[in-house]
């Protein structure tokens, strides 16, 4: 760009000195730079409002899980308007107390191999004190440390405050460059209106489940398979539970005075 971008010219009508563009090429260059800056500003604004490509993938998957397995998940809307999909882990041990997932006398789980049917109820994915969150930040598995505070509920069903706390920890992890690993992150989860807390241990998987590494890498491929079968089992259980809670027409009529 020319150093002599402007030149001074006297206006004979007013007698004033005015500046005019002396270098048309430099003017065009400046206009292009301004246009690029405006475009970049719009891109950053869109990324801020809609998220990065990975965040958009994660959100799409979180919504898709709730639609594909409506009995296994529920969604929570946070204060900022964002949605988080929460897995109903408690369905698995609750159902297993009434039925037998392993022997499967009603042939409800024929699409799931026997090894998975044995593993899932006993593993952390079937623990009533575990929660799985799916948000734009990724997949987060959290387990309550029952030695850090009193807990009187039959299972851990995180409320919006709990979820906010877990996501705050996750955002800090991602900001610090956290990635897929076995590292555990601690979060204090409050209960009983904040009167006491329990420490929750979380593992954060910020890579979108859409990433092929979840299917191709040996360790993540195993996780992906376990997740899929866990969701299938919980969906079958949740649907069965909902059906068992429905009242027949005569039962409804009997409730009327």
Kindly describe this structure:
It is a single chain. The strands form 2 sheets. The protein has a 6-stranded antiparallel β-sheet, sandwiched between helices. Strands 1-2 form a two-stranded antiparallel sheet. The chain contains 8 helices and 8 strands. It has 2 domains: 44 residues; 194 residues, no CATH class. The longest helix is centred in the C-terminal third of the chain and has 28 residues. The chain is of the alpha+beta class. About 2% of the residues have low confidence. 44% of the residues lie in helices and 19% in strands.
Number of domain modules: 2
Radius of gyration: 28 Å
Number of strands: 8
Strand content: 15-25%
Strand order of the largest sheet: 3-4-5-6-8-7
Calculate the terminal CA-CA distance, rounded to whole Å. Answer: 88 Å
Order of helices and strands: EEHHEEHHEEHEEHHH
Overall geometry comes to elongated
Largest sheet: 6 strands, antiparallel
Uncertain runs with pLDDT below 50, 5 residues or more?
43-48
Instruction: Figure out the total of helices.
Output: 8
What share of the residues lie within helices? Answer: 40-55%
Q: Which oligomerization state do the chains in this entry correspond to?
A: single chain
Assign the structural class, choosing from mainly alpha, mainly beta, alpha/beta, alpha+beta, or little secondary structure.
Answer: alpha+beta
What's the overall average pLDDT, rounded? 78
């Amino acid at each position: 760009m020319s150093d002599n971008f402007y030149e001074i010219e006297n206006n004979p009508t007013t007698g004033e000195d005015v500046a005019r563009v002396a270098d048309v090429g430099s003017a065009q260059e400046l206009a292009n730079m301004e246009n690029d800056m405006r475009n970049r500003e719009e891109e950053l604004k869109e990324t801020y409002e809609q998220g990065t490509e990975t965040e958009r993938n994660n959100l799409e998957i979180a919504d898709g899980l709730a639609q594909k397995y409506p009995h296994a998940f529920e969604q929570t809307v946070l204060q900022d308007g964002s949605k988080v999909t929460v897995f109903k882990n408690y369905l698995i041990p609750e159902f297993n107390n009434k039925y037998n997932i392993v022997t499967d006398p009603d042939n409800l789980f024929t699409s799931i191999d026997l090894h998975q049917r044995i593993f899932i109820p006993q593993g952390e994915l079937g623990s009533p004190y575990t929660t799985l969150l799916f948000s734009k930040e990724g997949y987060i598995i959290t387990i309550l440390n029952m030695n850090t505070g009193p807990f009187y509920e039959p299972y851990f069903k995180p409320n919006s405050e709990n979820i906010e706390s877990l996501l705050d920890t996750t955002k800090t992890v991602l900001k610090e460059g956290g990635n897929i690993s076995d590292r555990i992150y601690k979060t204090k989860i409050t209960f009983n209106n904040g009167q006491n807390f329990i420490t929750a241990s979380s593992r954060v998987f910020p890579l979108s489940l859409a990433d092929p590494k979840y299917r191709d890498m040996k360790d993540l491929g195993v996780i992906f398979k376990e997740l899929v079968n866990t969701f299938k089992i919980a969906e079958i259980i949740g649907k069965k539970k909902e059906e068992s809670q429905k009242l027949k027409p005569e039962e409804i009529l009997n409730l009327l005075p």
